[in-house]
Each structure stands twice: as structure tokens, then as C-alpha cells.
């Protein structure tokens, strides 16, 4: 009897405990379900067929940026290697007109020179011989002139024969021709001043034909100069120089005289010079298969030194096209895609064909129409 009572009490206790557990579970389950539901994040994007939809609560709405792609005039830039050269019209390689010994140097490397300044003097036996021949020719001319005048007087008085007058006339003309030849020879050697002053000096003063600076010197005082084809010094006016670019055959249709040019020099990073194309060479260099494109640049401060390397950027003729930021392009395998907004916060991927890059933009040559709105920032987040 006692055992049955214990069993009944135990059963009551067990049933009570079970009831408490059921009540507890029924109270906790809704709370857990609510917690699980709150921990499930909203989707950042959804797919409706080929269309990508950005829900209203998606964080992508804060990061995605779109822009309308419109048609405009595009001038595609292209670059050519170049170097700085002295203007040939402002550069003179000074060659003495005759051989001889250099006795003085009036100008040295880096010296400023004005047109007509004496650069150096050469003591030349050829000049001495030319001056001597000129003196003889002038004396012979004076003698034949007096003889001709005398024969004319005698002929007017009918004293001398006509043949004597004709002979005097011939002698004078020959002497005059020889005097002109000898004087021209002296002038060609640069000794006209000495001959005109009656000097017998064999010194030849070589003068500069242009103003500028001495940029090259190849002789010293006392040296004998016997090469008539080599320059003693070079004088150049560097107030304006040429930036000469080399254009390949494929670029010939894109270069022209008068074209705007932007010159970037290796010596001055981050600085550019605006200029214009002066000329395009009419012939192709057979060795390099390139054409010289010459750009005349002002150089008053002489920052541009002949021999410097440079990069010239030219722009092709403008044409109608569409530009979009490079940031809009998402590469998938070998294809370039952009995401086009077809409805508010609904996007579709489009394959596009790209052309030349213009700064931070790129030309679109296929796959888009003017007026399309594309994702230009964080479009890669849609590429799932």
C-alpha cells in the first residue's frame, strides 16, 4: 500500500514537471523564431530573369552611381616619341673659306654672339695670294684705262690708226674682267676689307652670320685648319627650337600641319608645353620607316636643350561618338560588359565594344545607344 502511494506521488510530480516544460517551451519558441527571423538579412539584389533588381532596403542603393551616356564630338589622342632639335634656319656651322692657321679666338663656348661679330682669325697664304693678284689686276686696269683714253684722243684728232683704238679697247675690257675676278676672289675669302684698305695682311677675320650662342667649338689657337668641310665652331639661336616627332606609316593620316600638340619633356615631369605642328616631312625615312613631324616651340628661357627626349601628344580629327568612364566597364572573361538601368533600380548586363581611351574615359563603338543610363561606380557588385 505504501509503495502504491509513492508511485502515485511520483507520477503527479512527473506530470507537473512535464507541464512546466511544455509551458516553458511554448513561451520560448516564439521568442527564438522572432530572433531567427530578425537575424535573416534582406537580399542586396534579386534576379527577375535577366534583370537585376535592387530592393528598396538594399545597401547597394547607397553605393551605385549611374550616368547617362550621350553622343558628342571625340578627338582621340595619340602619342609619338620626339626629341628637341635646333632650328636649322637659326644655326650656322662656321667653316673658314680657306685653309690656314688659327691665330685668335674671339668667342668661346657659351659666349653670346651678334650677327657680324668676329669669331676667330685665320692667317692664310691663300688670302695673301688673292690680295696680291687683286692689286696687280687693279694696276693693270688703271694702265689700260689710261691707254684707252689716250687712243681715243688720238683717234679724234685723226692721228692714230683705228686699229690701235680697237686694241686699246680690247686690252681695257680684259683688264676690267680680270680685276672683277680677282676682287670677287678676295671677297669670297673674306678679305674685301683688307683689300679695300690697301692692307697686305694675310689675316682672315671670320664673322658670324647669325646671332645666338657658341654651342660647339672644335679648334684652338695655333692649330692649322686644313679641312675646308669641317666647322671650326657652331653658332645657334635657341630662342625657338623644333620638337621633332617620329610618326609611323599607320599614323600618317592622323598628322597634319597646324595641328595642336602637347609636348611633355622627360627633363620636366608633370609639365607640358602647348604648341602647333609646323610641318610634316614629305618623304619617309627609309631606315626607320617614319616621317618627321616638326613642332616649332618658343624657348625664350632656354629650358629646351637640343638632344632632350620628349613625348608629343596629338589629337585626331573630331568625330561623333560616345564616351563613358572606364569605371563603368566590367570585364567578364574576354568580354566587356556594362550594366544598363532599364527601369528605376532595375539593371541588365550588356556586352559592349570599346575603342580608344581618352583620359579616364573610353569610346564605345558598339553595344550601347545614345541616352542609355549605365552604372559608373561599383558596377562589379552586380556581376554575380
Describe this entry's structure for a reader.
With 384 residues, this protein is an alpha+beta fold. The chain has a six-stranded antiparallel β-barrel. Strands 1-2-22-21-20 form a five-stranded antiparallel β-sheet, with no helix packed on it. A four-stranded antiparallel β-sheet has the order 4-19-24-23, with no helix packed on it. A hairpin with a 2-residue loop joins strand 21 and strand 22. The chain is elongated and about 135 Å long. The N terminus is likely disordered.
For this entry, what is the oligomeric state of its chains? single chain
Q: Please state the structural category.
A: alpha+beta
- Average pLDDT works out at 85
The radius of gyration is 47 Å
What form results from the Cα inertia axes?
Answer: elongated
Which structural traits does this protein have?
37% strand, 384 residues, alpha+beta
What topology emerges from the helices and strands here?
Blueprint: H1 2-39, E1 46-48, E2 51-53, H2 60-63, E3 65-69, E4 71-74, E5 77-86, E6 91-94, E7 100-105, E8 112-113, E9 118-123, H3 125-156, H4 162-188, H5 192-196, E10 203-207, E11 212-217, E12 224-225, E13 233-236, E14 240-248, E15 260-265, E16 272-280, E17 290-298, E18 309-315, E19 319-325, E20 330-332, E21 335-343, E22 346-351, E23 353-358, E24 361-366, E25 372-377
Antiparallel strand pairs: 1-2, 2-22, 3-25, 4-19, 5-14, 5-18, 6-13, 7-9, 7-12, 8-11, 9-10, 11-13, 14-17, 15-16, 15-18, 16-17, 19-24, 20-21, 21-22, 23-24
Helix pairs in contact: 3-4
